[in-house]
Amino acid sequence: MNKFTLIIAGLGIAAATVPAVASAQNYGNWQNINSRQVNLDRRIDVGIRNGSLNRNEAVRLRTEFRQIARLENRYRRNGLSVAERRDLDRRFDALSARIKYERRDRQGRRY
Question: What gap in Å lies between CA 51 and CA 38, rounded to an integer?
Fold first, then answer.
C-alpha cells in the first residue's frame, strides 16, 4: 500500500510539472535560434566528414546557412518580431530538410 501511494504521488507531481514546462516554452519543442544554427552547422560538418555530402552539396548548404544567418542579423537590428521568428523557423526547417535529403541521396564524395 505504501509503494502504491508513493507511485500515485510521483505521478501527480509529474503531471503537474509537465504542463508548466510546456507552457514556459511558447512553441512546444521549439529550439532557440542559436541552438538551431549550431545544430544545422554541426549536421553539415558531419556530412562533410563522413562523406555523405559532396563538395557542391556542402557549398550550397553553407551558402544557404550564411544567407539565413545574415537575414537573422538584419531582423535582430530592431528587435525580433513574432513574424520574423516564424520566418526564420520556416527557413531553418527548410534547410534542415535539405540537409537531411542531401545527406541521404547517395551522391556523397566518391572514393
Answer: 20
Q: Write down how long the chain is.
A: 111
CA atoms within 13 A on the CB side of 7: 4
Please state the domain extents for the chain: 1-30, 31-111
Burial zone of 87 (CB within 10 Å; 0-12 exposed, 13-18 middle, 19+ buried) = middle
CB 108 within 8 A of CB 53: yes
pLDDT tens digits along 40-80: 999 999 999 998 998 899 999 999 999 999 999 999 998 98
What is the pTM assigned to this prediction? Answer: 0.66
Contact between 58 and 47 under an 8 Å Cβ cutoff? The reply is yes
> Which residues are CB-neighbours of 99 under 8 A, at least 6 positions away?
40, 43, 44, 47, 61
The residues, ordered by sequence, that sit 6+ positions from 43 with a Cβ below 8 Å of its Cβ are 96, 99, 103
